[in-house]
Every structure is written in structure tokens, then in C-alpha cells.
Amino acid sequence: MRRSILVFVSGKYSGDIEDNIAFAKTFAENLWDNGYTAICPHLNTAKFNKEGKTKWHDYLAGDIVILERCDALLALPNWKESDGSQVEIEKAYGLDIPVFESVEMMNLYFGLENEQD
After folding, report:
1. What one-character-per-residue DSSP string does 43-77 give?
2. In angstroms, rounded to a whole number, what is the distance separating the alpha carbons of residues 107 and 105?
3. pLDDT at 53
4. Please, where are the H alpha helices in the chain?
5. Residue 100 to residues 47, 51, 87, 90, Cα–Cα distance (Å)
6. Nearest-5° angle of CA 27, CA 113, CA 34?
7. d(CA 37, CA 60)
8. Of 21, 5, 6, 7, nearest in space to 82 by CA
9. Mean of all residue pLDDT scores within the chain
10. Sheet holding 37-39, edge to edge
11. Are 60 and 87 in contact (CB under 8 A)?
12. What angle do CA 97, 34, 3 make, to 5 degrees?
């Protein structure tokens, strides 16, 4: 069952934060709509960097803790523009967590391309 597969959404956050959060949200919603369980750090700590005292490297360290518990990582199209995403993806590979650039490829990998929820 897909719902038991926890997927980490990795993509650019900095720069135009509002747009990047909205962009990541569409992918997280797509994962949920496709039956997966998604964690989207963009939404988890949205705008904390403007309101809190936590530093970038602390957020990244927390994201890695979350990633370590995931079954897959979905790399957004803008991941190469993000230092944090590059670290997350490298960590995923190091942990043998599969990295995907589309939900369709994830479905094929998990053998769920024909599953109906």
C-alpha cells in the first residue's frame, strides 16, 4: 500500500520563498493524491527563518533527521539550485534511500503503477 511509503520532498527554499513553498506544496499534494505519505520541509518550517532564531544549518540537520526515516525522496525540478537539496540528495544516496524526479518513476520502482487506492 502506498500510504505506508513516506516520501521526503526536496527542492529549493531560499530566494523567492513564497513561490518556492507554493511550488513544493503542489508536489506534496500530488504525492498525497497518489496515495503516498509526504513530508515537505518547505511547509514544516515555512518562514521560520524570518521569525525564529534557528540557523540554516540547524534546519538542514533537522531535515536530515526526518529524511533518515523516509522510504524515498522526490527531487523537485529546482533541486540543483539548492545547496540544501544537494546535501539531502547526497545523504539519501548514502542511506540507500531511492531518489526520484517524478511520481511516475516512483510508482514503477515500488511496483504500484497499476494500484488503485
Report:
1. HHTTTHHHHS---HHHHHHHHHHHHTT-SEEEE-T
2. 5
3. 73
4. 17-33, 41-44, 48-51, 56-67, 83-94, 103-109
5. 26, 32, 15, 13
6. 30
7. 21
8. 21
9. 88
10. 37-39, 6-10, 72-75, 99-100
11. yes
12. 60
Q: What is the CATH number of domain 2-109?
A: 3.40.50.450
What is the residue extent of each domain of the chain?
2-109
pLDDT of 26-74, one tens digit each? 999 999 999 999 999 888 766 666 666 777 788 888 899 999 999 999 9
Query: What's residue 17's pLDDT?
Result: 84
Residue with cell 500500500: 1
Over residues 102-111, the mean pLDDT reads: 92
Q: Using CB atoms within 10 A of its CB, is residue 84 exposed (0-12), middle (13-18) or buried (19+)?
A: buried
